[in-house]
Amino acid sequence: VADMKAEYIPPREDVIMQNELPDELYIIVSGEVEMIESELENEQTVWTFKSGDMIGEVGAFCCKPQSYTYRTKTLSQLLKIRTSNLIEAMKTRQEDNIIMIKNFLQHHKKLKGLRLGDLLHVVEEASGDPS
Q1: Are 46 and 86 in contact (CB under 8 A)?
Q2: Reduced to 3 states, what is the DSSP secondary structure of residue 21?
Q3: Cα–Cα distance measured from residue 117 to residue 35, given in angstroms and rounded to the nearest whole number
Q4: Pick from 111, 110, 65, 60: which is nearest to 90 by CA?
Q5: How many CB atoms lie within 10 A of CB 19?
Q6: Cα 106 from chain centroid?
Q7: Which one, of 119, 112, 103, 116, lies nearest residue 27 by Cα?
Q8: Domain 4-126 carries which CATH code?
Q9: Splitting the chain (131 residues) into consecutive groups of 10 residues, what average pLDDT does each group show?
Q10: Helix H or strand E segment including 126
Q11: What is the structure's pLDDT at 102?
């Protein structure tokens, strides 16, 4: 918890840019954040996240560029967590790894393109299992 940083972000501010390789994930405390798909000059809102949702975690955990831009729709309070801090916490509390991954997967059943192999690799690295 001490490694989380609360931030207030004004409306229409990009939090994460499409094709950016993130090293942080965010929990939305209040407000709304839009997930925007950009192609050339066209932007389309794909989803709107609200209080209690997470953004940026797929790219952060899977070490891949973001597929979308995440932009605040309203004044939003976000908790920012560095991926390295979260993985370090997972190493020190290994008994919580499975619970965290199950919660993560449960939260993201609606997202496309998430590969279980990417997540298993992250869990193995966090637990120190070289296989």
Answers
A1: no
A2: coil
A3: 24
A4: 60
A5: 11
A6: 14
A7: 103
A8: 2.60.120.10
A9: 82 95 90 93 92 85 86 97 82 74 66 50 49 46
A10: helix 116-127
A11: 72
